[in-house]
Design brief:
By secondary structure, the chain is an all-alpha fold. The protein is 55% helix and 3% strand. It has three domains: 111 residues, Endonuclease Iii, domain 2; 108 residues, Endonuclease III, domain 1 (Orthogonal Bundle), CATH 1.10.340; 56 residues, Orthogonal Bundle (Arc Repressor Mutant, subunit A), CATH 1.10.10. It has a three-stranded antiparallel sheet with strand order 1-3-2. It is globular. It binds a DNA duplex (11 and 11 nucleotides) through helix 4, helix 5, helix 8, helix 10 and helix 11. It catalyses: Hydrolyzes free adenine bases from 7,8-dihydro-8-oxoguanine:adenine mismatched double-stranded DNA, leaving an apurinic site. It comes from Actinacidiphila alni. It is an enzyme of class 3 (hydrolase).
Length: 308
Amino acid sequence: MSQSARHSASPSPAVSRLGGDALHDPVIDWFGEHARDLPWRRPDAGAWSVMVSEFMLQQTPVVRVLPVHQEWLARWPRPADLAAESPGEAVRAWGRLGYPRRALRLHAAATAIAAQHGGEVPRDHAQLLALPGVGEYTAAAVASFAYGQRHIVLDTNVRRVFARAVSGTAYPPNATTAAERRTAQALLPADEAVAARWAAATMELGALVCTARSPECGRCPIAAHCAWRLAGSPAHDGPPRRGQSYAGTDRQVRGRLLAVLRASAGPVPQAALDAVWHEPVQRARALDGLVEDGLVEPLADGVYRLPA
DNA sequence: CAAACGTGGGT
DNA sequence: TACCCAAGTTT
């Protein structure tokens, strides 16, 4: 029987026509041949390695994560090791991965794991979700990749694969919808181990073949079933895909300020921070924001440092 | 729910 | 040169 019958009252027409069974084997077989050998996927990689990678990979490409992930695991092999450090050291070691609040949240998550979970990354999806910086995607990813559980894992790659293969659109909606969750649930293999493999395989397919810019359909194991291809690969029609501005924004100023703090072993005088941006109002607002977020700690006399 | 939140490489 | 995009989460 189809998995959809058990978990979805009425699968969408597209899912019924496609049927998960037609897709599982080709995608999983393709994964077996083409999966990248990533550190957090190796047999000896523990849940902590997976969790660190998931935090780092939130909006940051794999190639830039690789060296930093290796450093972190060597330096802090268990959650308690990171928890024993100051949050500022986590922010410093985060380097230029971007979105440094992730470093703070990962440190906070490690602290919670050490204090409330006996130092072990929790297996339970709800407990994972309760950790700082862990949202719907990351909770499912850790439960699935680290512990082999059966969860829908909806990242941008999987959403794009399903948008094309199932819905026949060039791109998924801007935000994850209930319809996407239904589709993913209907396609999720019944067997736990197969489901976990499927999650990793669909993600890898999106990352390597069914890419955003120029998909290589000639290498796609399910091209023959793809609704988007069958419809003639129509261009994206909906509202413009949301872009991110950066130049001149507070984000850019925050980035410069934090770069100075990261580069300094000790506290930094106001003057060194003032040098990174000409406009005093925006500069002050950005610094206040960093303090507000806990990324920067003000000391007396206009001196600042990463949080101790 | 839209907007904020870094950084860098590809086209 | 601009703009797009990258294993999202939080408010």
